Amino acid sequence: MSQLNWCEKDYAQHPNIAEFWNTITSMSFIAIAAFGLCFNKLKVQYMYSYCILGLIGTASIMFHATLTDINRLFDEWSIALFIFYFLDQIVIVKRKWLGAFFFLELVLGIYLPTVHCICLIVEALTGYLYLYVTLDPNVSLFTRLEIDKLKTTFICALIVWLLDFTWTCQWVNWHSLWHLLSSISGYYLCFIFTTIKAVSHGKEEIRVSYLGYLPVLSIKT
């Protein structure tokens, strides 16, 4: 059994699924990653972030369905990989230091799971603030609007995550709600970075449209 157990009652809904609703809502990461891969017309080099986002969902399902320590590590490491991928993209520190920090994350996750979760949130917040503060002032109004949506969903997800640690989930399953908000926030992050990278290349035609509330991107050379 994992050292880290969320407040949903174990095996209450299904005899073979430890945390039923946390497992179900973990699928939101896979669904929104699949949405990004299917509806954004992208080249292969722009698809990596969506693939890692889907990996988070897979790892989260495995953890919440079984509550084993090995799957908890898989869950946390996939989130760390997602964060470090974007930290590498925005070049906060040199890649060799990112590799060292990522290795430290792997070790920390084994021995101090709660501290590791807090570190992941701090790193994500650091990356977001760096993106927002250093954003090119000439970037399009459209991109700024999407970043504002990212900010809103990220802050809401952070608040819900804190409530998950401090409040009982007798009436609300905070962790399941965190899954839903984080998957949407993750999609916006993937979309924004893909847009910024494509614009920076300067040789590609970019077209943006919407499917419901979510933006989609079409990139042509």
Number of domains: 1
Strand order of the largest sheet: 1-2
Instruction: State the helical fraction.
Output: 55-70%
Rounded mean pLDDT is 80
The CATH architecture category equals: Up-down Bundle
Note the gap between the termini. 51 Å
Structural class designation: mainly alpha
Model description:
By secondary structure, the protein is mainly α. It has a single domain (20-220), classed as Up-down Bundle (Rhopdopsin 7-helix transmembrane proteins). Helices cover 69% and strands 6% of the residues. It is built from 7 helices and 2 strands, in the order αααααααββ. The chain has helices spanning 20-39, 48-66, 69-89, 95-111, 113-133, 141-166, 174-201, and strands at 205-211, 214-220. A two-stranded antiparallel sheet has the order 1-2. The longest helix has 28 residues, at 174-201. The radius of gyration is 18 Å and the shape is globular. 33% of the residues are buried. The model has no long low-confidence stretch (mean pLDDT 80).
